[in-house]
Amino acid sequence: MCVTSCFRLFLIVLLLFLSFGCRSVNAPKPERTDSVLDKNSPNTKKLPDKKSDVSTSKTRKKHHQKAAPKSAPKSAPRPMIYETGKASFYADKFQSRRTASGEIFDQRAKTAAHRRLPFGTRVKVTNKRNKKSVIVTINDRGPFVKSRIIDLSKSAFQRIGSTRHGILDVELQIIGQNDPGLSD
Question: Residue 41 domain-assigned?
């Protein structure tokens, strides 16, 4: 075996060990540690009484509340970038034709074609140059040009760039399945 094959095998074994091995390790609960420790042993630390622990925890809480607000606002998880590449838009000749999903294509709708994503998937398409973005729904297959990753309807393309350019560098973020609560 060559060095790269051995290294790959080592990485696979390491990942398997970490993914399966770490799940079976359970941290001991505090109740168990109290009963496991031998109180007469000189090497064990003396645990504080419950009463003294309560009084110190109240003062600690006061100091912690001053340092940080009670409830920090939770930020929504940011979708990961699914793909980056070039985007184009549909030609006018496709207006009112059926898409691969069976819908009638409309240039004014915020729809797109992608090779692999399931129909109904909502995708945020962001122009890498000007950072403008639009949310589209996948309802067709394509583009069938190797260098492109998505075909947008003309209205969706105009939201993030000029149709004079014809092709834009974009990044795709999957938002989820078709959800009426989402808006662009």
Answer: no
Higher-scoring residue by pLDDT: 134, 44: 134
Domain count, the chain: 1
Is the pTM value of this prediction over 0.70? no
The number of C-alpha atoms within 13 Å of 178 and in the hemisphere containing its C-beta is 9
Cβ neighbours of 124 (radius 10 Å): 19
Structure tokens at 119: 């129909």
Burial class of residue 138, CB neighbours in 10 A (0-12, 13-18, 19+): buried
Range of 96's domain?
A: 81-177
Q: Using DSSP bridges, classify how beta strands 133-140 and 121-127 pair: parallel, antiparallel or unpaired.
A: antiparallel
The span from the CA of 114 to the CA of 141, in Å, is 5
- Do 156 and 125 form a contact (C-beta atoms < 8 A)? yes
- State pLDDT tens for residues 83-96: 999 999 999 999 99
Which residue is listed with tokens 């090779």?
115
Q: Is residue 139 part of a domain?
A: yes
- Contact, 89 vs 151, CB < 8 A? yes
Tell me if 170 is assigned to some domain: yes
- Report the CATH number at residue 122: 2.40.40.10
| Token code pair at residue 33 | 């540690």
Query: 137 near 47, Cβ under 8 Å?
Result: no
